[in-house]
Design brief:
By secondary structure, the chain is an alpha+beta fold. It has a single domain, classed as FAS1 domain (Roll). It has 9 helices and 7 strands; from the N terminus they run αααααβαααβαβββββ. The chain has a 7-stranded mixed sheet. Strand 3 and strand 4 form a beta hairpin. Helix 3 runs antiparallel to helix 4 and helix 4 packs across helix 8. The longest helix is centred in the first third of the chain and has 10 residues.
Length: 187
């Protein structure tokens, strides 16, 4: 998968180590029309800001200082928890994470939701099938997630064994892909 040097530098500044995603990238089209269409799309941050259900995620990205990282370069794939997903966390968790003194922990959690490269639902489903029903992959935080099928959608299991469903897949951004999730991953 391609990663621009600018993106790598920004990601490395945000986290100490960068994981890699082992799926093969599809062919990249050099067709000018597609290139211009992709540039007119919002960035990952722009997508999150426009949904009306990712206000907590946007606030967390701002508090962690990751706006520039998620607005530039790429490609990157983000599993984006909704406000309702953050609301399922124990009372006070989000407020505590948003405090400046918890920036490192918040950054680790947010980068646990990000994968280097453009990873579509089709890529994940193919990897799940090729790997006997479950596919483990590294996040930018250097931690693993496991994708599996859950009916007609994809389920993601975090390091603590909690399973989250992808509620909406393949929301394309100019610098990657967003998959909306109904839960928050915790390493």
């Amino acid at each position: 998968m391609q990663n621009s040097p600018k993106f790598k530098a920004a990601a490395l500044a945000a986290v100490a180590a960068m994981g890699t995603f082992a799926l093969a990238a599809g062919p990249v089209s050099a067709h000018n029309h597609k290139h211009h269409a992709a540039q007119s799309q919002p960035t990952i941050v722009g997508v999150a800001q426009s949904t009306g259900v990712h206000d907590t995620l946007v606030a967390a990205v701002q508090a962690a200082g990751l706006v520039d990282t998620l607005s530039s370069g790429g490609p990157i794939t983000v599993f984006a928890p909704t406000d309702d997903a953050f609301g399922k966390l124990p009372d006070g968790t989000v407020a505590t994470l948003l405090k400046p003194e918890n920036k490192g922990q918040l950054t680790k959690i947010l980068t646990y939701h990000a994968v280097a490269g453009n990873v579509t639902a089709g890529d994940l489903l193919s990897a799940i099938d090729k790997n006997g029903g479950a596919y483990s992959f590294d996040t930018i935080a250097g931690e693993q997630l496991v994708a599996s099928k859950f009916g007609d959608t994809i389920a993601i299991t975090d390091g603590a064994g909690r399973t989250t469903v992808v509620a909406q897949a393949d929301v394309m951004a100019s610098n990657g892909v967003v998959h909306v999730t109904d839960g928050v991953f915790l390493p």
